[in-house]
Predict the structure of 5-bromo-4-chloroindolyl phosphate hydrolysis protein.
Amino acid sequence: MVLDPDRALERAEDFLRRHMKSRATREAEKRARQRAMADFGRRFGRASMVTGASAAGVLGYGLAVAPVGATGLIAATAATIVAAGAALFWPSRRPQGSAALSMVSLGTLTLEAEEWLLRQRNLLPGRAAPSIDAILVRLHDLQPYMAKLDPNAPLAGEARRLIGEHLPRLVNSYLGVPATSREANPEIGKRLIGGLGIVAGELQRLCEQLSRDEMLSFETQGRFLETRYGADDTIDN
């Protein structure tokens, strides 16, 4: 078997790009961890409420009705443990698969897509990392606007199709090709990278359109300040 130096170098570069996380990826992972911790905090709060309510119920019953015997206390404790455990370990939100991305609310679409893409990252070619990073950044930039966007607005439909349908369909169709076929035909990887680049570009366009009102407000305020104070050396009160 003849070793192709170029191919070996390409594989090494691909491996390094896949496993050496960029700043965009690290920040996206940090946000995902923060959401996971917030979710755990909510579950812990639920478990604490269940435990407190159960203890108050047992105490109230004992004072108002009849003393709770040892058997009743054991049964109540067991029920409390089961209920508190369910509240603690039942997640407030579950990671969404690609099939569910198109059905989540606009307010959480970019968050779910970000976490989904992070899970796919190591399955994709290392050469796709720059495009994946660009998508992660744009998804984060879009989040404040998506939460306020009217679900019936045309841009909402565009965002839902692009993020919830076209992006996962592109990645899943690539992963659906057998690894041996992808290895034998480098053009498949190039098409994936090209498609991810298009998605990143469209997300950038959506960011620009959704932030247009804020940009206009900023420019208007800047012109006002220039008109009001620009010609003066001092500010009059």
